[in-house]
């Protein structure tokens, strides 16, 4: 199969030197790419700005902003056989971008616009292609994961907590729309990638 994978953060620029982003490292996406290729699949990676290089052998598309990631994903979706949305996409972007560095000087108020929901757009357009999403939650994790499965029209969800963004291993749970959730315990992201593909290939 040709597996389309999103990974890493997005950056939403405020001025020439500052941006809104998050702590995502892309490590989860890299693990998914390695596992895909280990199983004989083709890995296509849409990657936000991260310092580490991706695994060799992937088809790589680098992006910066959520809007750039959305365009890349929608362009690649028709030729993909399955989609794994593992990127930590910024929910909001500044309405106005300053072309000069903003100077210190009292209170600063930013007006933000909501970014498009890439996973939801994938869900609406995927047809019968398998789709996996990730949900990072701080409370009511399973409840929110099941809600996202419906609103984003995905097959199953990987539930994790904020600490997973910066750690090589963490607590993960696989959640489907129906049936009990499947806690995986504290495992490495490589082990999680194997569990995701075990579910994907059922």
**Quaternary structure of the protein:** single chain
- N-to-C SSE string, H for helix and E for strand: EEEHEEHEEEHEHEEEH
User: What is the architecture at the second tier of CATH?
Assistant: 3-Layer(aba) Sandwich
SS field, number of helical segments: 5
Indicate the overall shape: globular
Question: Class, according to the CATH hierarchy?
Answer: Alpha Beta
Strand content: 25-35%
Q: How many β-strand runs?
A: 12
| Physical arrangement of strands within the biggest beta sheet | 5-4-1-6-9-10-11-12
What's the CATH H-level superfamily name? CoaB-like
Mean pLDDT: 94
Tell me the structural class.
Answer: alpha/beta
Please state the CA-atom Rg, rounded to the nearest Å: 17 Å
- The low-pLDDT segments are none
Helical amount among residues, as a percent range? Answer: 25-40%
Q: Distance between termini?
A: 13 Å
Question: Explain this structure to me?
Answer:
The protein is an alpha/beta fold. It has one domain: CoaB-like (Rossmann fold, 3-Layer(aba) Sandwich). The protein contains 5 helices and 12 strands. The chain has helices at 27-38, 66-76, 118-125, 141-151, 189-200; strands at residues 2-7, 12-13, 19-20, 42-47, 59-62, 82-85, 92-94, 112-114, 131-136, 156-160, 169-176, 182-188. An 8-stranded mixed beta sheet has the order 5-4-1-6-9-10-11-12, with helices on both faces. Strands 2-3 form a two-stranded antiparallel ribbon. It has a two-stranded antiparallel sheet with strand order 7-8. Strand 10 (156-160) and strand 11 (169-176) form a beta hairpin. The radius of gyration is 17 Å and the shape is globular. The two termini are 13 Å apart. The mean pLDDT is 94.
